[in-house]
């Protein structure tokens, strides 16, 4: 699925903001280190993806109670849930001039309970005319997400019968309902009670 940008301003997908703070020195230094080992933009995009997926543990997998949401904090503290890791990857991509944005899925347990909004990244690599979704949340048994500009290799494929879905929107900045939950949570247990279970219709215009 190719997400639909929610703004016609292409520059928005290269901009810095409070969550995707790619002008921060740590983000810049991390990008420069990855770029030094990547001969072209494709190689850099894959290196940035692999770095976020594999070296920053998903806090639910590691049991880390800390909540991060700003890209620079995710890189510094090396922890975060899917949304935080998506912010970090988006920042690293934009730091090297690769347009990137945030997109989302609605997922549930196998019985359709406990719905949650899951965060992804979409990028438009040089020489490619479409947005390609990536899932940097981190692999574990049963999850094998990979970097791909062709066929998607995401962690999960939504199951419509359980109320799961791909949201069509591509956002330059995190939707307010997601960012507010991340910013207000005292710890990860508190965050689970604050995160939205669906994206409001108004967030998808």
From TrEMBL:
One Pfam family it belongs to: Transglut_core
TM stretches of this protein: none
Domain Transglutaminase-like stretches: 29-135
Protein's UniProt name: Transglutaminase-like superfamily protein
InterPro entries tied to this protein: Papain-like_cys_pep_sf (IPR038765), Transglutaminase-like (IPR002931)
């Amino acid at each position: 699925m190719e997400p639909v940008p929610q703004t016609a301003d292409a520059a928005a997908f290269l901009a810095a903001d409070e969550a995707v703070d790619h002008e921060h020195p740590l983000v810049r230094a991390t990008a420069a280190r990855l770029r030094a080992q990547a001969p072209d933009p494709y190689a850099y995009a894959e290196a940035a993806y692999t770095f976020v997926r594999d070296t920053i543990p998903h806090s639910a997998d590691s049991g880390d109670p800390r909540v991060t949401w700003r890209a620079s904090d995710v890189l510094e503290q090396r922890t975060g849930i899917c949304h935080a890791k998506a912010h970090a990857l988006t920042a690293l991509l934009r730091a090297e001039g690769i347009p990137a944005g945030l997109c989302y899925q609605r997922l549930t347990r196998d019985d359709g309970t406990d719905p949650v909004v899951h965060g992804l990244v979409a990028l438009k690599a040089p020489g490619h005319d479409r947005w390609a979704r990536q899932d940097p949340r981190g692999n574990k048994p049963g999850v094998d997400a990979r970097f791909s500009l062709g066929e998607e290799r995401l962690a999960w494929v939504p199951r419509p019968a359980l109320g799961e879905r791909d949201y069509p929107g591509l956002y330059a900045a995190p939707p307010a309902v997601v960012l507010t939950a991340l910013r207000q949570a005292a710890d990860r247990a508190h965050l689970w009670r604050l995160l939205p279970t669906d994206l409001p219709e108004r967030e998808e215009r």
